[in-house]
Amino acid sequence: xxxxxxxxxxxxxxxxxxxxxxxxxxxxxxxxxxxxxxxxxxxxxxxxxxxxxxxxxxxxxxxxxxxxxxxxxxxxxxxxxxxxxxxxxxxxxxxxxxxxxxxxxxxxxxxxxxxxxxxxxxxxxxxxxxxxxxxxxxxxxxxxxxxxxxxxxxxxxxxxxxxxxxxxxxxxxxxxxxxxxxxxxxxxxxxxxxxxxxxxxxxxxxxxxxxxxxxxxxxxxxxxxxxxxxxxxxxxxxxxxxxxxxxxxxxxxxxxxxxxxxxxxxxxxxxxxxxxxxxxxxxxxxxxxxxxxxxxxxxxxxxxxxxxxxxxxxxxxxxxxxxxxxxxxxxxxxxxxxxxxxxxxxxxxxxxxxxxxxxxxxxxxxxxxxxxxxxxxxxxxxxxxxxxxxxxxxxxxxxxxxxxxxxxxxxxxxxxxxxxxxxxxxxxxxxxxxxxxxxxxxxxxxxxxxxxxxxxxxxxxxxxxxxxxxxxxxxxxxxxxxxxxxxxxxxxxxxxxxxxxxxxxxxxxxxxxxxxxxxxxxxxxxxxxxxxxxxxxxxxxxxxxxxxxxxxxxxxxxxxxxxxxxxxxxx
Length: 571
What we know:
Keywords: ATP-binding, Helicase, Hydrolase, Nucleotide-binding. GO terms for molecular function: ATP binding; hydrolase activity; nucleic acid binding; RNA helicase activity. InterPro entries: DEAD/DEAH_box_helicase_dom (IPR011545), DEAD/DEAH_RhlB (IPR044742), DEAD_box_RNA_helicase (IPR050079), Helicase_ATP-bd (IPR014001), Helicase_C-like (IPR001650), P-loop_NTPase (IPR027417), RNA_helicase_DEAD_Q_motif (IPR014014). This is DEAD/DEAH box helicase. Belongs to the DEAD box helicase family. This protein has helices at about 80-85, 95-105, 120-130, 150-165, 180-190, 200-210, 225-230, 235-240, 260-265, 295-305, 320-335, 345-355, 390-400, 420-430, 445-450, and strands at about 45-50, 60, 110-115, 145, 170-175, 195, 220, 250-255, 270-275, 285-290, 315, 335-340, 365, 380-385, 410-415, 435, 510-515, 520-525. The chain is α/β, with parallel strands linked by helices. The strands form 4 sheets. The protein has a 7-stranded parallel sheet, with helices on both faces. Strands 12-13-11-14-15-10-16 form a 7-stranded parallel sheet, with helices on both faces. It has a two-stranded antiparallel ribbon with strand order 1-2. The protein has 3 domains: about 45-275, P-loop containing nucleotide triphosphate hydrolases (Rossmann fold), CATH 3.40.50.300; about 285-450, Rossmann fold, CATH 3.40.50.300; about 480-535, no CATH class. Mean pLDDT is about 75; it is low at about 5-55, about 280-285 and about 465-560. β17 and β18 form a beta hairpin. The protein is globular. It is built from 15 helices and 18 strands.
């Protein structure tokens, strides 16, 4: 299963920061400081519409919303943003963008529901950048903040908004776990107007004093329902209590369940509500298939043939261990496959995603860590090898395909004992799938998924290795002359041992004894003993007589008088 940011322990809010009054769910809303153009006073509870199954009743706006726009140039946005939109090939706003941008640019709170791939990132991102443009953040004090549940979603939001932020000279900082907290703190110290963060890592930086939220005037919660499901609500509320009171709040998600009703009632004031899709998140360009297989053996064969299709596919599976096993099995059968799950480090996950995007990997075996926040262009098929636990997971898994108006298919493999649960899940999602009973060799399977027989030739994926820094000439081991008997130099390199017969006065560290002099001593690592001196290699041991190498010259016995050490010119 997904292992995202671990929620940190909740701490008391720092002193001196403005706090927003908390309230019990059944009580009336607390007073909120008035914004520009609003009159102060007790906030009126918003009227609520009838709630769909599993969701809370959406509030009805008291103040009428501004009408939607059909083109970006109808919006009051900086010219640099409009120019960048054209350069990025974004000509026409998606429905959720056209409906919410006029209101978010005016400073209204937004409650938006739209399926994954419907354009939520630009819906909140353009308004946030336009309203922040021209301002400059102080060190450690961002001006706008986007909270997301996973590292991958944070990176996707950053990548999507970077061209637009650059166009209006705004600096971005991404704060997630699994990466260097020191570097992230350094970025904040240098100043960043826009902060994209996961709650756990941001809490760590706040505790260290590397970030303050008192100047944040625009706050966005993206995929808020998943943050609630993952136990982040205490942290999210603590973070929201530290931002500037009266600031703008925007909450976007593909699903809005009852877990985030508290956030809506406590932190959104008379929000503009927009639901671009029905609660099921159904998309006309997406096909849903439930394929019944006889047993686990047939399921493995069907999975292998689907993975070998001509084109990329994401295959969702329940556990990290199962993902690793399936990826290894597919590689052995000739399918370029890789596993993506929370047990991998962030650099490993980034590398795997890059291999999948560039086609080096065609079958991505993933746990729910990839179910949100990963955008892959032209991905036509998602396969639930293991059916999801609930309809929300199904919608977010399927949201990896049929994005931004493209077409795609979601296929779920179902064993006989899973049939009843799958029917209930589809009913909760409001989806009527195409069903079929298939075997690995059926033409129906090929028609639906493009399945074909794997090549059988094992695939080995190249893993980039970090370059080993080469030693400079000055760092090469040098032969040392620490004295000798009769001019011999029983020197050695670094570790190893050479001795030449004379009395040595003790050991230094536990290393090489130099030949001949009473102050020979041993250095670094090695052993002294025997007679005769052989030059020792990097990690060898010269054992004298009976050891490796020939002694350069015979040495005197330990009790014999020692000659004076020859001067350099006498050698």
